[in-house]
Design brief:
Elements (H helix, E strand, L loop, with lengths): L2 H9 L4 E2 L10 E3 L12 H6 L4 E4 L11 E3 L3 H15 L4 E5 L4 H13 L4 E3 L9 H7 L7 E5 L7 H9 L3 E4 L7 H4 L2 H8 L1 H8 L3 E5 L3 H7 L5 E5 L6 E8 L2 E6 L2 E8 L4 H13 L4 H10 L8 E5 L2 E6 L5 H13 L5 E6 L8 H15 L4 E4 L1 H4 L8 E3 L2 H10 L6 E5 L8 H5 L1
Parallel strand pairs: 1-2, 2-3, 3-4, 5-7, 5-8, 6-7, 8-9, 9-10, 10-11, 15-19, 16-17, 16-19, 17-18
Antiparallel strand pairs: 11-12, 12-13, 14-15
Helix pairs in contact: 1-3, 3-5, 4-11, 4-12, 6-9, 11-12, 13-14
Length: about 425
């Protein structure tokens, strides 16, 4: 079947589904395969549950129903269909990547643009070789903008995602020590994320550049098709950091924008959303209202109160750059009594030992007590006698159930696999 024919079928279906547990009547089901599953095995269930069609790559199923569409590789066809669909839409696609803050930045941009336009964006963090196609296929013809988040843990991944999404505008939140194992070090991270810049240059598209980030200036080079933002008066959009105690406040267009985001590291995420809003002529009052209305969730930069304690919950994910930024923020935060709970950082490979030790050294130099470290990597670091280390969360749990923590401010941060938000249940 030609991709044009498949696109016609897709257009007459309710939506795209890759998980029969979430299937809605009228969907087109794509039977993806993974290391531990084969979507072909659920194709008959998909039809029984109301799917209009099932795209499969198991030839033994083809004769069972005329609604089975046999292809060589379901994933490849999904990606090709997404790219074909992207070519049919006439509105701009904005792509973003970076080591930290992608999802928060995406949500901020969405809030700002949707205050004045009809916009759709990546749901959650569906930002990989499957998520990006699904995002594109969720875009309808009646939009004004589409926002696509792109994640990567190795070289050439952003380059590949750009060939699918073909963005008109792009931005990189930052370059940090994330996925060092896959990228082979920080230089690999910079090279990998900069594949978005390469695409924009090669296709004469526009890059949003943070003038406060020297690495971004260096990586974009002399490419002139850009829109700049930052504290420099020479920026196209001038925005300045005001404070972050507790929440981030920024100055823009003779007004102070009071966000509900914590940590001065969120300044740049807010700034790019403001800059994009200004570029696309969203009125300043709407930009201000959109930023101030954004409420972080899903364990990202959340502040919550439990009994007499204030909790800074940033446990969705972690890498050396984001963890150091969180500790720096916590150091500057005014509070009488502080507790720190840190969980292992994943995907660091050969860099794991030195990076975990660096975090420990910084924490102990700036916080003399109440430091709790969880996970195999942190457990094997060299620590002061006053620092508590635990091989597993269950070991920490035993201590917390016996502890009395009151009238304190707590920072909780770790990689997703550590699920440190469980501390809240104990408290």
């Amino acid at each position: 079947m030609k991709i044009e024919e498949l696109h016609h079928i897709y257009k007459n279906c309710k939506s795209v589904c890759t998980d029969t547990r979430k299937l809605q009547k009228g969907d087109i089901y794509f039977a993806l395969k993974g290391d531990n599953f084969d979507g072909n095995k659920f194709a008959k269930d998909a039809l029984g549950n109301g799917a209009n069609y099932c795209v499969i790559d198991d030839v033994s199923l083809k004769t069972l129903s005329e609604k089975f569409i046999l292809v060589d590789d379901v994933l490849v066809i999904l990606q090709q269909l997404a790219n074909y669909h992207r070519k049919q839409v006439s509105y701009p696609i904005i792509a973003l990547t970076g080591s930290n803050g992608k999802t928060t930045t995406k949500e901020l941009i969405y809030n700002v643009l949707s205050s004045n336009y009809k916009v759709k964006a990546t749901k959650g963090n569906l930002n990989n070789h499957i998520g990006v196609p699904l995002t594109l296929l969720s875009f309808t013809e009646d939009l004004d903008f589409g926002i696509v988040e792109m994640g990567a843990n190795h070289l050439e991944e952003i380059e590949f995602l750009c060939t699918i999404a073909e963005p008109d505008f792009g931005l990189i939140t930052n370059f940090g020590k994330a996925h060092l194992e896959g990228f082979g070090g920080i230089d690999g991270v910079i090279k990998g994320k900069s594949e978005l810049y390469n695409y924009l240059r090669e296709n004469n598209k526009i890059a949003f550049i943070n003038t406060d980030d020297e690495k971004q200036i260096e990586q974009i080079g002399s490419y002139t098709k850009r829109s700049s933002f930052g504290s420099s008066k020479e920026s196209d959009c001038v925005i300045s950091f005001e404070s972050a105690n507790t929440f981030v406040h920024v100055s823009y267009d003779n007004a102070i924008i009071e966000s509900k985001l914590i940590g001065n590291y969120n300044y740049s995420n807010i700034a790019v959303a403001i800059a994009i809003g200004e570029y696309f002529e969203v009125p300043s009052p709407k930009i201000k209202n959109a930023i101030e209305a954004y409420q972080p969730d899903n364990n990202r930069s959340e502040i919550t109160n439990i009994k007499t304690n204030k909790i800074i919950l940033d446990a969705y994910n972690a890498n050396p750059t984001s963890m150091l930024a969180a500790l720096n923020y916590f150091k500057q935060l005014e509070a009488d009594k502080k507790y720190i709970f840190l969980g292992d950082m994943f995907e660091l490979g050969a860099y794991a030992k030195v990076e975990h030790q660096a975090i420990v050294d910084f924490a102990e130099a700036n916080f003399k007590k109440n430091i709790y470290l969880v996970g195999e990597n942190f457990y094997n670091t060299k620590t002061n006698p006053s620092t508590y280390t635990y091989l597993s969360f269950e070991d920490l749990e035993k201590t917390l159930k016996e502890a009395s923590i009151n009238n304190s401010t707590l920072l909780i941060k770790g990689s997703r696999g550590m699920a440190l938000e469980r501390v809240l249940d104990i408290l």
